Amino acid sequence: MTINIIKNENDVTIKLVGRLDTNTSPALDKCINEEVKGVTNLTIDLGDVEYVSSAGLRVLLSTQKKFDKGLKIKNVQESVMEVFEITGFCDILNIE
Amino acid sequence: MNLLIVSIILNCLLVLGVYSLDKFTKFKKLSYFARQAIIGVLFGGASAFASSFGVDWLGAVVNVRDAAPLSAGLIFGAPAGIIAGFIGGLYRWFSIYWGAGTYTRVACSIATVLAGFMAAGLRKLMFDNKKPTISYGICIAIACEVIHMILIFVTNMDNSSYAFEFVKGATIPMVIGNAAAVGVALTIVSLLSSEGIFRKFKGERIANTFQRWLLICIVIAFLVTSSFTYVLQNGIVKIETQKVFTTAINDVEAEITGMSREFVIDATKNRHVGSNGFVAVCDSDFNLVIDTQYNGKHISVIGIEVPDEMLNRQDATKLYTAEIVNAETEYKETYKYVFKFIDGYCIIAAMPETEVNFMRDASIYTSIFMQILIFAALFVFIYILIKRVIINNLKKVNDTLGKITGGDLNVTVDVRSNEEFASLSDDINTTVTTLKRYIAEAAARIDKELEYAKQIQLSALPKNFPTGEDYKIYAEMIAAKEVGGDFYDFYKLNDTTVAFLVADVSGKGIPAAMFMMTAKTIIKDLAESGLPVNEIFTKANKKLCENNESGMFVTAWMGILDTVTGNLQFANAGHNPPLIKRADGTFEYLKTRAGFVLAGMDSIKYRVNELTLNAGDRLFLYTDGVTEATNEQSELYGEDRLYKFMNSNSNVDATSLLPLLKKDIDKFVGNAPQFDDITMLTFDYVPKKVSSVNKIFNAKTEELSNVIDFVEDALTKYNCLPKVQTAICVAIEEVFVNVAHYAYSEDGGTVDFTITFDGVSRLITFRMADKGVPFDPLKKPDPDVTLSAGERQIGGLGIFITKKTMDNVTYAYENGENVLTMSKNI
What is the tally of structural domains in chain A? Predict the structure, then answer.
């Protein structure tokens, strides 16, 4: 998985490409904790992600907790949306 | 004379009429003898008609009665000629009762009957029962009339001089009349039959050469003998006449020597020389001493101009000619005379020239008639002889040679009528026997080579029929006697794909076999390169079109089956439609729009057709050797018979079914030979119920990607939808990560992972076993997914996702292993 960060003063967009699974989600977690400090508005673009496992969900949940209303998830693919629906994440996350 | 021409025209019209009747109407449907009888009667009538309408000649009738039987016999057939001859002859015989003369009764009757027989005989013997050429017809008519004249002569020998006069006058018109009638009739028929008056010259036949030379020789012989006879008779007549004159003169001389003038008159009175000649005496002044009114008058009064010898008182040295006035009739007539001087008298003996020449002319006529007859007979005889001895034998030899050239080497020439032909026959037979031996040897060699070719061709067809796969294939190719161009083929393209086809190359023999090998190889190469079936055909077609100068082509039906999903893609290049039977149904023809044959045109694009096979479905592929097997009544085995047979044997195992079908075809065909190769292939789709893969992984999260790859491979192989694949992979990851994290202590351990797939129900089962601490992950309660983000616990989602994704998840602790089993219908 690759992580692209686009910073725009207080607005940061993270674009992910690849799989968000057990092995890759720690990288995203670390990135959010270290690179996006002090930012109020974070957008995660999942347009090129078709695979999210529970490890990824964990990162997304902790991020959600951290940013609350400042987090937006966009371009969710169908297969990922199914996981969000099974786990009730679609109600928690601010999905555009 | 006009009546004669009317008769000729009538004869011609009759020929024209009968010929047209025979050629253009239903008349020809009558039997041969009925037709001959009718024609005979018609021409008999014409003969009778001609008999009554002739030209009077010295108390007889000159006519063309003989022309009708001649025409009938020569043009229409022997029986017709004979019948016409008899009718004409009988009519002449009885016609004396209604005014005809009796003088030529016998001769004319016989001659007419004879004319019919002559025409019939010559047609049979000389002309192979066909009508003669015009010239032959005319010659025959002439010969016939000559016989007629001889008959008149012979039947009236009691008054030969009258008969001779009659014949002398009648011959020319009779000959010309009859010859003209027959000649014109033949000309008309020649024109009608569109062969023309002159036969086309197409290499002279032996018979013609003989005929011509024979004719020339005979004409020369005839002329020579006739001239000789003429000269000889002329000489004889002169001597004979001299003798008669001398005798008469000597008689008179003996009586008048020393007698008075009156006595001299008495002595010559009533004295005849021959029958119409006379003896006259004149004195030294050439005044006649005779008892007629010319007595005492100069000799020139009766027409004798005194020749020089007489003037010089010399005796005659030759026969003199003078126009002498007959004392009774006072008509002048040509006479021959001699004179002799005795005692101052000159005795003159004279005879009419006709009487002098009668003997000569009679013998010349008879001799010419006889010669014509003899030479004509000779001609016919030699002609027939040559025909019998040479031409017929040559024809026999030629006919046999024709058969030999036509390919029948079992005939022999057997002409033994003379040594030369016997030898020729033997030589030909020996040649044929040798030829036969060579041909047999060559045929044996070719047969052997063809046998090898057949073996090679058969060995190119796969014989190891798969049984342990998800399908069963069984095929048979029964080659016709000659090596042919049928083939079947099947091969695995990968673990889950199999290709199979049946094809038929046009034509037979070595070229078809070679083309078949090429086609088979090209198709296989293309198939193994992974192309879809329509592309295989499109490309194979292009390749086969290259350098296909012999114009051969292949029909083929090819299918490529995904053994996991049952998806069958197939293409048809002008081949017979296969039969398909669904597991619980009956065979039906799988008729789709077929593409053009392979190797026919290089720009063809083939379509792909698709259908899904279910477990137990059977396909039957065949070549037209099955449907076009032909019995002795030329009926085809046909699609209907095949359809019925397949449906009444639908549950028979393939290995027994094909021999049974062959037996059924053989029964239908009977004793007719097998023309074409018979190729049959059955494809049974029997996907194994369960297939499984197994792999052991280290229970570490680093192995995760390997595990996911393993799962994805299996799912792809079983044709799982991509969306479902992702969901399953997520579920498997959750379970595996769980084991990796918790099952083993630091030393680690392994996970035994088995994926099982049931092809029929499409149920996929994942079994994961580890030897770690006994732990049932399913016991943990499901997280509350309705809680808000703040209330939600991190963790516990993984197993939940798994449970939600899979249809069924169970846990068991067996034989010291934690066994988690998950299944899902895909």
Answer: 1
